[in-house]
Structure formats: structure tokens, C-alpha cells
Amino acid sequence: MAGKEHAHPNYMAIFWWLAILTVVEIAVVFMPFGKLTIGVLLCGLALAKAALVAMYFMHLRFEARTMGFIALTPVLIGTLLVLVLLPDGFSMAKKSELKGAAAVTAPAKN
Amino acid sequence: MTTHSMVEPAESPLTPESWGKLGMWMFLAGDAVGFGVLLASYGALRATSTDWPSPYEVLGINLTAAMTFLLICSSVTMVKALEWLGRGDRDRAVRFLLYTAAGGTIFVGLQAYEWSHLIHAGLHINGNPWGSSLFGASFFLVTGFHGLHVTGGVIYLLAIARYVLNRPQPEASYNAVEIVGLYWHFVDLVWIMVFTFMYLL
């Protein structure tokens, strides 16, 4: 089975993609975009990089589908986890925002 | 490896070509959930906090960007090790495994350097000069958990390098090198996530 080497992908091309995407990520942080735009862009870039590593470096593209399902399980669980936490996070953020705004307007130090 | 031929007759769609690889993928899936929980709870803590600092301003991302690049490079040396072993060049394969381990060691060294600087600046697991103390706790927990994975990976890589050296036939260790590669790339993949969610966002 050692002879059964799946055709090696062009690893250097993947390396350059990862390097370029990292530079783009860092550039995005300093772009004059809104917080949400930056957040979405960064998440998208991170997922793209993770997919490149999993598909080509970890050979997921050339594996049996079983491996793909195993690899997707934590992605699914992670997404569910975020969905479960989101409503809590948002309502708390709103509350603390109100509190924060009140605190800012009240003392007005300096 | 000999069990491999024994189970072959009962081949089903779930029977992998390598049980070791299947085992590593299952371990990594579980480990990914662990990291997922840590990052999701980091996000939840951050969303509910009023004085969470802007990470890239207080942590500095120059060093971590270099560390990210270093891990990507070590992933390349890892695939090169497997490629050389596949071509039957055992010595080159071992050399590239050692390069990969060296990359991991430098990464952990840089992380220790970064930590010592931040600790010196007052960031602790129970204290943060720039706001919420939970920031310090979650920062050290997540980066520390990842750093332990890198440390474990370096030990694993060195063990596999020895394993390859002890087997005259390159084919005999191909599977083991592919499996250590899976682990190593996973550690790289997790760092991509940690770098984005804990430093850039």
C-alpha cells in the first residue's frame, strides 16, 4: 500500500496560497472597513486557509469519503455550538452596551 | 500492519486502507471539537464583555505573523518528508522530518518569548492591564493548549524519524509518516484559526 501514493499535489503552490492569504488577512485588519466586514472577511480567509491545509496537505481530497465525513463532524458540532451561543452573546452584548453607554455619559471624566 | 491483510475480506465502505490513518482522523476530529469549544467560549466571553481589549493592538501581530509563516513552512517540510519517502529516499525523508521538528521547536521558543513579554507587561491568567481579566485567562489557555500540541508534535516527529531510521525499507514507514503528517498539519490548521480569532479579530 506504500506504493499506492496518491498523485502528490503541487505543494509549493499551496504554500504560496497560504502565504498570500496570510498577508491578505493582516492587510484586512488595517483596512478602513466596518468591524463586521473585517470580521466576515477574516473568517472567510481563515476557513479558506484551513480548507487548503485539510484538502491538500492532509490529502483529504484524495481520501475515501468516510474521512471527509469524520473531518466534517467537528465543523458541524462547532457551527451548532456557535449557533447555540450566539443568542446569549448578542443579548448580553446589547445589555452591556446599554450599561457601557450609560457609564460613558454619566461620569464624563477628563 | 499485519492485521491489515486479516481484515481485508470483510472490506466495507467503512473499512479504511489504513486503520492508523482512520484512528488519527478520529482523534483529530475529537481534538478539533476541543479547540472549537475553547474558541467558541472565547467568542462568547468576548461578546459579553465591555472592556475586552483589541487583541492585535495589545498583543502585537508581527511576531505571531512570523510564527504563522513558520508553521506553514514546517507543513511544507512535512509533506516533502513524505514525498521523499515515497520516492524511496529515506535519508532525505528523515532530514525533512527533522526540519519540521526544528520548525516546531522554534515556534514553541517564540511562543515562550511572546508569553514572557506579555507576562512582564502585566498580562496574567487572572489579570490584564488592558481590560477584562478573562482576556488573559483565555489567551493563555488557548495559546498554551496549542503550544502543548506543538510540543507533543515535536516529540512525535522525533519518534517517527527514529522509526524511519530503524526500518531499511522506506515503504515500511510510509504509513507512519503520513499519520504524523496528519497530526502536524492539524496543528498548523488550528494555529490558522487561533491566529485569526485570538490575534486578528
Describe the structure.
The complex is a heterodimer of chains A (110) and B (201). Chain A starts with 10 loop residues before the first helix and ends in a 5-residue tail after the last helix. Chain A has two domains: 1-63; 65-110. The longest helix of chain A is centred in the last third of the chain and has 41 residues, at 65-105. Chain A is flat and about 60 Å long. In chain A, helix 1 (11-29) runs antiparallel to helix 2 (35-57). Chain A is built from three helices and no strands. Chain A has helices at 11-29, 35-57, 65-105. Chain A is mostly helical and 110 residues long. Chain B has 201 residues and is mostly helical. Chain B has a single domain, classed as Four Helix Bundle (Hemerythrin (Met), subunit A) (Up-down Bundle), CATH 1.20.120.80. Chain B has seven helices and no strands. Chain B has helices at 2-7, 19-47, 55-58, 62-86, 90-120, 133-165, 170-200. The longest helix of chain B has 33 residues, at 133-165. Chain B is elongated. The model of chain B has no long low-confidence stretch (mean pLDDT 89). Classes of the chains: A mainly alpha (110), B mainly alpha (201). At the A-B interface, helix 1, helix 2 and helix 3 of A face helix 2, helix 4 and helix 7 of B.
Provide tags for this entry.
heterodimer; A: about 110 residues; mainly alpha; 2 domains; B: about 200 residues; Four Helix Bundle (Hemerythrin (Met), subunit A); 7 helices
Q: Count the beta strands of chain A.
A: 0
Largest protein-protein interface: A-B, 52 and 58 residues
The average pLDDT score of chain B comes to 89
The SSE order of chain A reads HHH
CATH superfamily of chain B: Cytochrome c oxidase, subunit III, four-helix bundle
Q: How is the biggest beta sheet of chain A arranged?
A: none
The counted number of beta strands of chain B is 0
Strand content of chain B: under 5%
Q: Would you identify the regions of chain B where 5 or more consecutive residues have pLDDT less than 50?
A: none
Helix/sheet category of chain A: mainly alpha
Overall 3D geometry of chain A?
Answer: flat
How would you classify the helix and strand content of chain B by structural class? mainly alpha
Which CATH class of chain B is shown? Mainly Alpha
Number of H/I helices of chain B = 7
Uncertain parts of chain A: 106-110
Radius of gyration of chain B: 20 Å
In CATH, the architecture of chain B is: Up-down Bundle
